[in-house]
Each structure stands twice: as structure tokens, then as C-alpha cells.
Amino acid sequence: MRHENKKINVAILLCYLATTFALSGCSDNGRQALSGTVTLDGQPIGGTISIDPMGETRGPSTGGAIRDGKFSMDKSIGLLPGTYKVTIYSTRNTGRIVEEGGLRVAELKPIRFNEEGSLEITVKAGGDNKFDIQLTSLKEPKK
What we know:
Elements: H1 2-24, E1 34-40, E2 43-44, E3 47-53, E4 62-66, E5 70-73, E6 82-100, E7 103-113, E8 120-123, E9 130-135
Parallel strand pairs: 1-9
Antiparallel strand pairs: 1-2, 1-5, 3-4, 3-6, 6-7, 6-8
């Protein structure tokens, strides 16, 4: 009888542990999925996006690729609710041809948006966290 009680206790413990591990995989860590578009002068751009907490917001940073003007992060790499600074990195064709490695190629100028900290997003819990980021080129002053 005593041996059977040990088997029952072990079986209950194993069921408890299996249930605990199964449910821990389903827990919500509070991160939110997000997605959006990035355009420059109305045209979709490629590059990367970096999103970092601001002010009172505590939590992780995230980032990823922008392809054909679109980006997305699922909950596994998403953000906690709060306010975030957004930085966009891309390149722009200057219209000039340059020699590079013995080849003539279009010159690409690296561009970075948000050096002044003006791009911000607010991520909401359970909300539709879709963001449309519309960038405008600085026009060169006429001489």
C-alpha cells in the first residue's frame, strides 16, 4: 500500500509539473506586436528601423528590416506599452555614378532619420499597433 501511495504522489507531481510547463509557454509577457509602413516623399523605402524606450517607458528595444516600405515585429520581439523613439536608417541614390572596385555603380548616400528625436510612437496594450511613418526630404537651399 505504501508503495502505491508513492506511485500516486509521483504521478500527481509529474502531472503538476507538465501542466506548469505547458501553461508557462502560454503566458503573456506583455509585449505587443507592431507593424507599419515607412515612406520618403510618398515612396516606400527599404532599410532598418530601430525603436527605443523614451521617458518613463521601461522595457526592451526592438528593430528590424524595412522591406518595400513595410516592417513588422511579432509579440516575441515586440514592445511593452509605452512611448518609443524611432530611428530609420536607409540609403538614397545621389544620381551620380562612381567607381567602386573597378565597377561603375550608382552612388548611395546613407541617410538617418530622427537625429533630432522627433519620430515617436506610442504602443498600446491590446491595441492595433500599426504605424505609418511619412518622411520628407530636406530640400537643398537654392543658391
